[in-house]
Amino acid sequence: MLGCSSSSSLFGLSYPLKDTFLLYKKVTEQYENPEILRIVRSLIPQGIVLRTTTTTTTKHNWNLVPLLRWFKNDFMEWTPKDPVCEMCVNRTDGQSKVIEGCSNNRSVAAAAAPIMQVKKIIIGNSWKMRKLELFICNSCKHEYAFPRYGEILKIAKTKTGRCSEWSMLFGAMLSSLGIKTRIVHDFLDHCWNEAMISYPEGEQWVHVDSTLDYPISLNHPYHYEENWAKEYEYVLAFTADTVEDVTQTYTLKWDSIQQRRLKKKKATDFSRLIHQYNNEDIFIVSRASSV
Question: Is 163 known to be catalytic?
Answer without folding.
Answer: yes
